[in-house]
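We treat protein structure as text, and this decision shapes the records that our systems exchange. The tokens are whole numbers drawn from a learned vocabulary of local backbone shapes. One such record is reproduced below, unchanged from the form in which we store it:
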Amino acid sequence: MGLSSSRAVWFFGLVVGAALTTACHHRSSSIAPAPVSITAADDDVHASLLAHHRYHHHGGLTLLVVMSLDTLEVPSDKRDSIGKIQADLRRALTPSRADEQRLTAALADAVAANELDDGRIGAATAEIVSDASKADAASAAALNRLHEMLTPGERASLVQKVSEQAQVWRRANADVPPEHSGWVDSLRIEPPLTEVQQDAVRANLVALAHARVTTTTGHAVANALSAFGDAFMSDTFDARNLDGFGEANGRMAAVGAAHLVALVQAVSPVLTASQRAFFASELRYHATHDDLPAVIL
């Protein structure tokens, strides 16, 4: 877990002002955001996790499984085998991760040149969604091996951890009016944004109809997660038959890409030359790191 959480927080300065409180396990649950106030994370690791779920989510539910395996308690004689399965799941996400890197590199180039290439950015976003939607097929064999290896109690624990990661994803992507949150105030760029620049970023976010998790996407993710949980906790399991898993992966990847593009579209036009160079450099770092934030869930 080599990601510097302080650098992730330092760059994104993420503040989340509302949460989606719906439980993940019930298809009939409402996915509408609840007006629950969430303060800025004091803990760097937690803030890094929120930033990851908002901007860096090329793998959808499959990536939630990968992250959840880090803290799954299993006997020591299983840990090496679990690690190999986790590595196989990561490999299944390689195409969408490469797509995300291309998108972020395109955004960094756009910031440096002070000109967004809509065609290049749109094509990179479409590739992320397409490849993320196919990750369920690529990961099916590894998920089947995982089910076979785990006991019923370990399966239930993993499903709970994946559900908790999904709740963090919902919270990080809640529909928060940007002008009503501290998000812009805590976005750190060097030299720091002036108050005038912060106001301009807020106005840009409003004009961009700030990216969010729609009710349709929320339902799709909740339904796929419920189907995964029910199937994975049963005695027999075949990941190839999971209902809606690929669609949910694609939708989650689309939300992450949209947030990253909106961030750049809102911030880039207001920057000075030195701020632009700093922001482009941070985007390039964001494009190249592969580690996930460590968190105990």
User: Anything to note?
Assistant: Residues 5-20+31-288 form one domain. The chain is about 65% helix and 0% strand.
